[in-house]
Write a structure and sequence with these properties.
Blueprint (H helix, E strand, L loop, with lengths): L17 H6 L19 H26 L24 H7 L4 E2 L8 E2 H21 L5 H10 L1 H18 L4 H23 L10 H25 L24 E2 L8 E7 L4 H13 L5 E7 L18 H10 L4 H10 L1 H10 L1 H11 L10 H13 L11 E4 L2 E2 L9 H10 L8
Parallel strand pairs: 4-5
Antiparallel strand pairs: 1-2, 3-5, 4-6, 6-7
């Protein structure tokens, strides 16, 4: 049959080169970029959807662990990438990550804040649905897969930032978080391959209208997750009234250590700390990172959980804490610097305390020459003993850390995940009656 001459859309095959044959696509009547449905191989898009679904799983696990702690109780945390593994109770990289200020946003407005895992859940859910949609869609082209690839930059970029924070600030990598990092990287790589394998979108500009719609859908996915979380999170907390009160707020001079005050410090506070207590170190960091620590005029009761000087403990939980406590009482004007040093070198000091108390004391005298002649003396031992006895009439729990604001004790759960929220309410909210 002869080919009609001068008819638009028809060319003699003798006039078409091999490269043009491979790039030529058959036009459709619906005008959707003029591409046939299966010109873009859907396999890589399905793999992208699967990788994003893995991200959904890990984000959901992380969000679930966070939500469990909203009741203020101690719970085990999933700390393995293997599905079905037993949660871990106690110290772990995942717990350190969850308690860090980087695990959630708006911590002063919501108890614990809005976990970043909830946002990640919305992002990965959108990427899963969108990649599957493009795999099923008729006429998918590079103009479409390009948007998908660009969207995967959000989780992969966020993962890079959080990996840096985990290694440089938190000092621990959560395995579930690592699963999210890997899922983000896989999603990015597979979406890139899908984009490279997709057919050209043909002539014409980019479909900005479709891009705007897809972007709005992505925002809606994340917004819906946040809305569900905020609407379900508890808003009334009985712990805001505190968990006890100091009976005696005054102490003999020298028993409490006064830390340097910021100009805006207008609220008296008492912190009960053990200088070699890892939880105290983390607590000190959380107070500093909350941005509210400057409002506190803080005195410190040094409460070493170390048997040689503390008759209230049956065994030394933090060996060497007595020596560090004595050193701070020997030079109270340098208390902040000495506490900072103890927290920064906690593992080394604990190891010295377990190995040889004399070596620990010699190291403290080397670093802080002011304590020479005082450290280990009867005078400073008497001060430590009196400060511990001051805790008895106040019925202080034998634990660290503890924080009292204007005489009211913050409940234990409000010194970790809920610290920012509770501090904000204590300092800026209406005054509540204390719970005995």
């Amino acid at each position: 049959m002869p080919v009609p001459e001068n008819e638009p859309g028809f060319r003699d095959l003798d006039d078409v080169g091999p490269s043009e044959l491979t790039e030529t696509v058959v036009r459709r009547d619906d005008g959707d970029d003029g591409l046939l449905a299966r010109k873009t191989p859907p396999g890589w898009l399905w793999l992208t959807a699967i990788a994003a679904a893995v991200g959904v799983y890990f984000a959901a696990v992380s969000a679930h662990d966070f939500i469990l702690h909203l009741d203020g109780q101690v719970h085990a945390i999933t700390c393995s990438v293997a599905p079905g593994s037993d949660p871990v109770l106690g110290a772990s990289g995942c717990k350190a990550a969850m308690l860090s200020p980087y695990s959630s946003f708006f911590r002063q407005s919501y108890w614990g804040g809005i976990p970043v895992a909830v946002l990640a859940l919305g992002v990965f859910a959108f990427l899963t649905a969108f990649a599957a949609y493009l795999a099923l869609r008729r006429g998918t082209s590079r103009k479409d897969t390009g948007f998908l690839w660009l969207a995967t930059l959000l989780p992969v970029g966020t993962s890079a930032v959080y990996y840096y924070l985990a290694t440089s600030e938190v000092g621990a990598i959560c395995q579930v978080c690592a699963g999210i990092y890997v899922a983000s990287a896989l999603t990015f790589v597979l979406a890139g391959v899908a984009h490279w394998r997709a057919v050209s979108g043909g002539p014409g500009g980019l479909p900005w209208g479709r891009y705007a719609l897809w972007f709005a859908e992505g925002v809606a996915f994340v917004g819906l997750m946040v809305l569900v979380y905020v609407s379900a999170a508890p808003t009334e907390r009985h712990t805001l009234s505190g968990c006890g009160r100091l009976v005696e707020t005054k102490a003999e001079p020298g028993l409490l250590i006064s830390l340097p005050r910021a100009p805006e410090a207008d609220t008296p506070a008492l912190a009960v700390l053990d200088p070699l207590c890892p939880a105290c170190k983390a607590f000190d960091q959380r107070v500093a990172q909350s941005g509210l620590g400057g409002r506190l005029a803080t005195d410190v009761l040094l409460f070493p959980l170390d048997k040689p000087c503390n008759w209230m403990v049956k065994e030394s939980l933090h060996p060497g804490a007595c020596a560090v406590t004595e050193a701070i009482h020997c030079a109270p004007e340098d208390a902040q610097a000495m506490l900072d040093y103890a927290f920064a070198h906690q593992e080394e000091l604990l190891a010295l305390g377990r190995e040889d108390d004399a070596k620990l004391r010699a190291e403290l005298e080397r670093v802080f020459p002011k304590v020479q002649g005082c450290l280990g003396s009867a005078r400073v031992k008497a001060i430590v003993n009196k400060s511990l006895r001051w805790a008895v009439p106040n019925a202080l729990n034998v634990q660290t850390p503890q924080l009292f604001i204007e005489g009211k004790r913050l409940c234990d759960e409000d010194t970790d995940l809920g610290l920012d929220y509770t501090l904000n309410r204590f300092l800026n909210g209406p005054k509540a009656e204390v719970t005995p």
